[in-house]
Amino acid sequence: MTTETATPTPEPPEAGERPDKRPPFMVLFGRYLTEANSVMVTVYSLLLAFLIGAILLIVSDETVRGTWSYFFSRPTDALEASWQVVSNSYRALFEGAILNFNTIDRMAAGTAEIGDLLRPISQTLTYATPLIFTGLAVGLAFRAGLFNIGAQGQMIFGMIGALIVGFSLNLPAILHLPLAVLAGAVAGAAFGAVPGVLKATTGAHEVISSIMLNNIAGLFLVWAIGTSFMHSETRSELVTKPVEDSASLPLLLGFVDDGLRVNLALLIGVAAAVFVWWLLSKSTFGYRIRAVGFNEHASSTAGMNIGRTYVTTMSVAGGLAGLAGAALTLGVGSGGITTNTALEYGFDGITVALLGRANPGGIIAAALLFGALKAGALDAQPDVPVDMSTLLQATIVLFIAAPALVKAILRLRAPRGGLVTLEAKGW
After folding, report:
1. Cα(376)–Cα(92) distance, integer angstroms
2. How many domains would you assign to the chain?
3. Model pTM?
4. Is the pLDDT of residue 416 over 90?
5. Distance of alpha carbon 55 from alpha carbon 49, whole angstroms
6. Alpha-carbon distance values, 232 to 114, 169, 236, 237, 294 (Å)
């Protein structure tokens, strides 16, 4: 008696492809470029965002619009004027964020120094640093299927925790600075644990609870700054006491120019990204995070404590956001913080996490991009509208969050396994 086993039938080769030969590299590369995979969707999202930004620059310029009114009689006028406004605007963004070519000429003429050349990139790194932390805070929660929209409030409590330790203790710098940074992380972690506990014990959705906690944190900051304990003793406006020099983050390029604001927090942010990568990829806790994010019911059946995973994940995420607050308080805000010090870094961390696909390396790259957009837009005024940075960020996130839209616009092929999007449960 013999038993026959069915052998799988190999897939037929595509047209023009020999079954016994691997396709050439350029063919494989071309297929990759025309596929709606996560990398190409991200690249195409950036390109589409800058294209839309260019169109809006053209239509918002009255002079350029005028040249399009007689396009069919003299098309070169409209095309040249459009190219000029777009190229000048994007060049101004680049020079304000990365490298100013006029500064190179001034250095050659002896009227500028190396600090002037490094100032744009220093500003970019300064703005990107808190985004690395808040992006990691949101991205880590994403991996557990949670939407940590409360990074703003966690960052604010991190600011307060670092500030209190920063001005109230008199210690050597080797002790004072680490304690102040740790205080920011602990305060953020404690505040981040609240929506995790509420979800684990009552089922309250983390988005609703964290939105309310953001408002509580913002109002608490206004009250705290006005107290005699935290309010500046030498200034009448709403500003806190400055932190001690021993708790201030040292400048990375201070030996070149004291005006280059990028500080040690940038290296701490990179170290935090490496830690998150290790946590997710190499640790048992990271395996639980990914398992719960993939399928909480199967994880519960396997014996994992879902509620505990939610609480610990949100605590770690809150600690990362708290580090962003510590970076602001002990760095650019070391002379005292105000209600505007936090800006919108917590909310911008959501866009950073989306663009970075909740991957630590991608989050660093996305933070650098958004930091460059912010630095470039602020430096390029009034040549470039200040809202251009926000516009580009919003458009990028629109396409990143809707990969099917990018696929439809560019007629890309669906990747194997389908389109991949980041999702949080409960929506």
Report:
1. 7
2. 1
3. 0.88
4. no
5. 10
6. 35, 16, 8, 8, 48
